[in-house]
Each structure stands twice: as structure tokens, then as C-alpha cells.
Amino acid sequence: MAVGFRILSRKRVVAGEWVARARALPVANISDVMSRMASGGATLRPMHAAGGMAGPALTVKTRPGDNLMVHKALDMAVAGDVIVVDAGGDLSNAIFGEMMLSQAARRGVAGIVIHGAIRDAGAIRANPLPVFAAGVTHRGPYKDGPGEINGPIAIGGMVIQSGDLVLGDDDGVLAVAIDDCRAVIEAAEAKQAAEAKQMAAIEAGTLDRSWVDASLRRLGCEMPEV
């Protein structure tokens, strides 16, 4: 068994229903209903033109600065996949660039997440295919391995199994375990509906803000009586 240098089979994939429903929701709302305990870290920022991302994870773990396994993942990806790469967060060498972006688009990939650096930032910024990364460098990668595909990875403490739901928007990247998708998406949809009512009340000038002072008093804040 070549632990650390192997390609595994993806056993399960999140159902398309949850991908489609999650795509219509802000990542922040999904994060909130997960008790704000999951995050890919604030370093993962959108590098593309605009737009959100949702799809099943095709996971890659690679040695920092090496993208051999990322190239293999591009060849394995099916339409709708999100390729999620744990490259250790190292920014010394770019793991992904313009030519790989073109290949990803040709494969119908729904998004790319690089816990590491990209290059050809201008081309990626002009393209609508979602790309999230931790930084930019002109220095290219090595192609020697090792690495793993379809194994568990962790980014910023967030564990991602291959096939899990991966989401991204302007606020960052989030993963939802396959078995949690129904509960999480339904709760996030309810939160979104409640927030729509709040926004309507704000616009109408009828939003009840008494909770602010009530919270301050409960917490023992000294404040003048109004």
C-alpha cells in the first residue's frame, strides 16, 4: 500500500438535488446553520471574475509546490465536480494556472479550490469559472508527486471527504458532509426565508430592534435609561 502516493475510488457523491438547492443560498447562511464551526479559512479567496460555486468534491492532497496529482484529477473529473486541493497552504509555487483552467472548463468542472497559490491571475480573474486560492505567485510548480486523490483532506481545520458538497462565494469556501446535506440545506433555506422577512421590515422601517438593549442589559452593560 503506497500511503501518500495513491489514487482511490470515490465511493459516494452528494446528490444533485442538494447541489442545486445549495447553489441558491449564501455560503454565510449555510455556515450559520452549521453553528459557524466549519471554515476553509479566511485565506481562501475568490480569484475569478464573479459567481458562486457548488458541487461534489474531488479531493487532492499534494506535496507543497507540486501539481502532478492535480493534473491527474483534471483527467478524472466529471462535469459538475469541484476539484479541492490541499497543497499545505504553501505559496512558494503555483499549483494551478491558465492552461489548467482551460482544461478544467473543457471537462465541465464546476470549480477549483487551491489551498496554495495560483498564477496567471489576470486570466483567471477574467474567467467566470470559480477558482478559490490562498495566494498568487509567478513561480511554477514541480511535477514529481507524491500525493493522493479521493482521500480525506483538511483545509483550515475543515475536513473534506471526496464526494462531499463544496460551496464557495465572495465570503469563502465551505464543505458539507454528504450525510448532513439534507438537514443543513433545509435549515439554511429556512434561515434565508426569515432573513428575507427581516429585510422587508428594514425597508419598511418596522424592524424590532429592542433585542439590542435587551441583550446589553442581560450581559450587565451599564447604560443610561432612555
UniProtKB/TrEMBL annotation:
Gene3D superfamilies recorded: Ribonuclease E inhibitor RraA/RraA-like (3.50.30.40)
Cofactor: a divalent metal cation
Pfam family, one: RraA-like
Listed InterPro entries: RraA/RraA-like (IPR005493), RraA/RraA-like_sf (IPR036704)
Domain of life per record: Bacteria
The protein's name in its UniProt record: Putative 4-hydroxy-4-methyl-2-oxoglutarate aldolase
Organism: Bradyrhizobium septentrionale
